[in-house]
Specification:
- This protein has about 375 residues and is an alpha+beta fold.
- About 40% of the residues lie in helices and about 20% in strands.
- It is built from twelve helices and 14 strands.
- The longest helix is centred in the N-terminal third of the chain and has 19 residues.
């Protein structure tokens, strides 16, 4: 017998998991990402940066013999950020890394919750421009299509939209967090309760209560731009519009949906944020976003963006892993400059080359 919330794999299931992991790793390498192997545990305070109380409280904690308080990793992005900030200072930017491994969280077993899950993901550090956001979205789409998963949606939002709305309301951190959680859960009753005690015009009150309804296709961005006036929210919407235009040019719009109530649970997100769903928004396969402030907490201020898949949720969508091919990793890497030509043309070329199996790395210089 094993505890609830953990798993044991053997036989053919092991081969299936390793095959899918190898395919994802090969795709990420062919987009110019290098592998990093991370420790299973670290100091508790390392994970406290940006995780928020909800996830931070789920960490498995234990005392080392020297009295240090340690934790099994509940998150891998934080460990990548800490490593880049403290041990990779001499490396040229951008730094592009991918990883795989277990994360451990104290969850109540059941309803799809696991105490141990296996993630594979990547982080792009050192680029603050929207083209880095577009790149990681394309890598995620490329990964899923290579696995034969075609029924998926990426629900894309931007935390700047929410932050721009509330920053002038002079809310306490506790009140702002409660409001964010109500919006993130799309709980209208909870949201009405939270805004009831906030001093604002009735027009703004109705708008806040209606934020969960800002979800759908590209028209959602145009609709919101016609309503919001504050600079921060508008800048967020313009970032989303630029992403939408590039994705549309690549004829990949069917995989994107826009959700302005997508503000997620981790405190470290600062820009785009997204969740990846399979089977008509039924199963969350993974997610990610931009987190420009995290590395500064470890002593090196670098912009960053990334995502991860939960392998256990991805596998049920793959019909027959034995028929899938692991992408080749030999051949000359093609470097495309994001500073030369229109971004649409750069990404079209990068996407076409990747579909031909050619290794591609995007950078400011080619």
């Amino acid at each position: 017998m094993i505890p609830q919330g953990v798993q044991c794999y053997f036989g053919e299931e092991v081969n299936r998991r390793r095959k899918v992991e190898s395919i994802l790793a090969a795709i990420m390498k062919n987009w110019g990402f290098d592998e990093i192997i991370l420790p299973f545990f670290d100091y508790v305070e390392s994970f406290s940066y940006g995780l928020g109380s909800e996830l931070g409280d789920k960490a498995y904690r234990f005392l080392d013999k020297d009295g240090s308080l340690l934790a099994l990793r509940p998150d891998l992005t934080t460990l990548v950020g800490k490593t880049v900030a403290t041990r990779m200072r001499g490396q040229p930017l951008p730094i592009q890394l991918f990883y795989s491994g277990e994360v451990f969280r104290q969850e109540r077993a059941g309803a799809g919750k696991q105490k141990e899950s296996y993630q594979i993901g990547l982080e792009l550090m050192g680029v603050g421009e929207p083209h880095a956001d577009i790149e990681i979205l394309l890598v995620a789409i490329d990964c899923l299509l290579h696995l034969g998963v075609k029924e998926f949606k990426i629900a894309l939002g931007h935390v700047g939209f929410f932050n721009g709305i509330v920053e002038r309301l002079n809310l306490t951190p506790e009140k702002a967090n409660a409001l964010r959680n109500a919006i993130d859960h799309k709980d209208v009753a909870w949201l009405k309760k939270e805004v009831a005690g906030i001093r604002m015009s009735e027009k703004k009150r109705r708008f806040l209560v209606g934020v969960p309804d800002f979800a759908g296709g590209r028209e959602v961005i145009a609709q919101a731009l016609g309503i919001v006036e504050n600079p921060r929210s508008r800048a967020a919407l313009l970032d989303l519009r630029e992403i939408e235009e590039i994705v549309a040019a690549l004829e990949l719009s069917s995989f994107l949906t826009y959700d302005l109530a997508e503000v997620r649970g981790l405190d470290y997100y600062t820009g785009i944020v997204f969740k990846i769903y399979g089977r008509a928004l039924g199963l969350e396969l993974g997610g990610g976003g931009r987190y420009d402030g995290l590395l500064a907490k470890f002593g090196r201020d670098l912009p960053a963006v990334g995502f991860s898949f939960t392998l256990d949720r991805l596998l049920p969508l793959i019909a027959d892993a034995s028929k899938l091919e692991i992408p080749a990793q030999d051949g000359k890497e093609h470097v495309l400059s994001t500073r030369r030509g229109r971004l649409e043309e750069v990404f079209r070329k990068a996407w076409d080359m990747r579909q031909q199996g050619l290794p591609v790395r995007l950078g400011e210089k080619a």
